[in-house]
Design a protein that fits this description.
By secondary structure, the chain is of the alpha+beta class. It is built from 14 helices and ten strands. Among the domains are: about 160 residues, no CATH class; about 60 residues, SH3 type barrels, CATH 2.30.30.60; about 80 residues, Alpha-Beta Plaits. The strands form three sheets. The chain has a five-stranded antiparallel β-sheet with strand order 6-5-4-3-7. A three-stranded antiparallel β-sheet has the order 8-10-9, with helices on one face. Strands 1-2 form a two-stranded antiparallel ribbon. The N and C termini lie far apart (about 120 Å). The N terminus is likely disordered.
């Protein structure tokens, strides 16, 4: 091959000899008597801390349960201390021993204890501080990566580790990618993405607090800010570590071809989402019906709209369906929703009284508006056994349900009609027996005699 893909160090033999020499020196230090004594002291302190924590944890747990009325932040701090009690006791004991031994003996006789104390203290600080990261996977990655780097710094191995990572490299054309460069890029991009996430959430809270901006425009501004922050974090991170961004032009072209052929539905939903946000046809909090789905919009996503129904189900409707299909928005321009119920009364009841009683009964139900749109009642026809009416009333909170308010109005009508002696008829049939006819009955399960007399 004209060009080697993997870089071969020119002084590999000298580098390996240096590492072996360091290992021999390290093993020689470990074989000294006082090193063994310090390791034995550290092991004894760990066993002592384990025993103290074993006795103290139940008592601390019982004491914490008796402080249930404390603020949550205090309880959380106590929980963290309870979980790390053994490590906290070990760190306190080992540093107490180090300070005492430095006063009574040579500093070199506490060298190993000093390293163990620093490593333990670093792990304690990192473990407690990374609890602020909510995501478990991210928390674990950050915790162990930071501790490895701190441990290398305490042991004085950062330069050797960096040199080793720099030697492990790949050359692609004019670009040289080493493990050190890749790790730098991951760290920088991760930090910038975390900062972008923080800024996007803070800006989203500020935008949503602004009541002068409509909910749909708020969602549009939030989505645009998120795209800008995350894209800037990614590009700036790559630029900081020295990656040539001109190569991204080829990648963007490939992505464009893929979007054109394989991601038509995805792009359609994304564009439809932008159209929905800009034309304000639906917004969070609107009550809509699409097909057989009735509910209110929880949030507008880049790909879908989240709709929650009265039975607690959450439907994710693609944005394209809201653009191309028929959508009933119950609260598009205002919150007024009119509901109709039908009923009938007997012919013997005064229709004027029935209408008045029905209006008053509906107006007395919670959630039914009495002003500015009071209930109305009209006669819609004369049936076979009843006078038929329609009762119309208005509500302003369709998210509270429609079936339940109809049921409450029906119950109010039932009680009002009972108090005012208004009868609700039911179908009746009259049987006329012609003169000279004989009523034939069934006896002992035998079939009736249908023969003529």
């Amino acid at each position: 091959m004209d060009q080697e893909i993997f870089e071969v160090p020119q002084k590999t033999e000298e580098f390996l000899r240096g590492i072996l020499g360091d290992l021999e020196g390290f093993l020689g230090v470990l074989l000294r008597p006082w090193v063994g004594y310090q390791l034995a002291i550290a092991a004894g302190l760990f066993l002592l801390a384990w025993g103290i924590a074993r006795v103290a944890r139940p008592r601390m747990h019982a004491w914490m349960r008796s402080r249930a009325g404390w603020p949550k932040w205090r309880i959380r701090i106590l929980v963290l201390i309870h979980r790390r009690l053994r490590l906290i006791i070990f760190v306190a004991l080992i540093w107490l021993v180090i300070w005492v031994m430095r006063d009574v003996t040579w500093p070199s006789r506490t060298y190993v204890l000093d390293i163990i104390g620093k490593l333990s203290l670093a792990w304690l600080v990192i473990a407690l501080s990374t609890r602020l990261i909510l995501n478990g996977l991210v928390r674990a990655v950050v915790r162990y990566a930071v501790y490895i780097w701190v441990a290398l710094s305490i042991l004085g191995l950062t330069e050797a580790t960096r040199d080793l990572l720099e030697r492990a490299a790949i050359e692609l054309g004019e670009t040289r990618l080493s493990l050190w460069l890749i790790l730098q890029g991951l760290v920088v991009v991760a930090v910038l993405l975390f900062l972008a996430r923080f800024l996007s959430r803070a800006s989203a809270r500020q935008v949503r607090r602004n009541k002068d901006i409509s909910p749909s425009m708020q969602e549009l501004v939030v989505k645009v800010l998120q795209v800008v922050f995350y894209a800037a974090a990614f590009l700036v991170g790559l630029r900081i570590v020295g990656v040539d961004l001109t190569g991204l032009a080829v990648l963007s072209g490939a992505i464009g071809v893929g979007l054109g052929f394989g991601l038509q539905k995805v792009v359609s939903n994304l564009v439809s989402g932008l159209i929905i946000l800009m034309d304000k046809s639906v917004k969070p909090g609107d009550v809509i019906s699409i097909g057989e789905t009735f509910g209110w919009i929880q949030r507008l996503g880049a790909r879908y709209v989240s709709i929650t129904t009265r039975d607690g189900k959450e439907f994710l409707i693609p944005n394209e369906d809201l653009i191309t299909g028929q959508v009933v928005n119950w609260s598009h321009s205002n919150d007024y929703v009119r509901l109709d119920i039908y009923f009938g009364t007997a012919y013997g009841n005064d229709p004027h009284k029935v209408r008045r009683v029905a209006r008053e009964a509906a107006a007395g139900v919670d959630r039914v508006l009495s002003q500015p749109r009071p209930p109305v009642c009209h006669i819609v026809g004369f049936g076979d056994s009843s006078v038929n009416y329609i009762l119309r009333f208005w509500i302003t909170d369709p998210t509270g349900g429609l079936t339940n308010i109809r049921g409450n109005v029906f119950l109010a009508l039932w009680d009002a009609f009972k108090e005012n002696d208004i009868a609700i008829p039911f179908p009746q049939r009259e049987v006329t027996v012609l003169e000279g006819s004989t009523l034939i009955t069934r006896e002992n399960g035998a079939a009736p005699d249908t023969s003529a007399e």
